[in-house]
Write a structure and sequence with these properties.
By secondary structure, the chain is α+β, with helices and mostly antiparallel strands. The protein contains 2 helices and 4 strands; from the N terminus they run αβαβββ.
């Protein structure tokens, strides 16, 4: 004869195990995705001319302080009047 308390413990253990597996899977997925979307700083000479021209137009007199690349996307970080913002463009690789 199985006691009620023993059955309840089995269900709690099963739920805990399932929760741990799901949490681990989610954590691994987030870590893998974060690594996939890492930006790298690049030199202006590595940015296609059409992307540079588009960013300069968007800057409206601001200064492009650095370039970043993520996959096929280029981002110009622009500074104007003490504020910085990014403009992202897709370029040819």
């Amino acid at each position: 004869m199985t006691g009620i308390g023993q059955n309840n413990t089995t269900v709690k253990t099963t739920n805990l195990l399932i929760t741990a597996i799901v949490s681990g899977g989610l954590a691994f997925g987030v870590a893998a995705q974060a690594k996939e979307h890492e930006e790298e700083n690049i030199n202006t000479s590595d940015v296609p001319a059409e992307v540079q021209k588009a960013a300069e137009t968007e800057a409206h007199g601001g200064k492009i302080v650095r370039w970043e690349k993520e996959g096929a996307n280029y981002e110009a970080v622009i500074e104007k009047k003490g504020k910085k913002w990014g403009v992202q463009r897709v370029g040819k690789c």
